[in-house]
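Hi P.,

Sorry for the delay on this. The queue was packed all week, but I finally got your sequence through. Input first:
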Amino acid sequence: GKLATWSREELRELAADLSLNEADLVALSRSMADNTVLMERTIRAYGFEPEHLRRSFAPLLHDVERVCSRCHSTGRCRRELDAGTAAAHAHSYCPNAGTFADLVEYTTSS
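Then the structure:
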């Protein structure tokens, strides 16, 4: 992610601002990057292109990203994506499943 390009000094300052130590900040950055990858893979599993949604549904996607960044089902998410069953099973683990289902309904009905 973008934090990888920051100097140690910049990281230290940001960590201090957020009351985190550097290791926590790097871990947070890494997990957010992982969650973004999972989010984009899930969007594709539902038949959408992440960039297209970013352009057409920016506020909605921002909300989806926020929910994904706090998700605790990343292991299950990754397994379902790898197995090709994410869209079919998302309702049982994904906090964004309802949003994705609404998007599918909205785009197929219009």
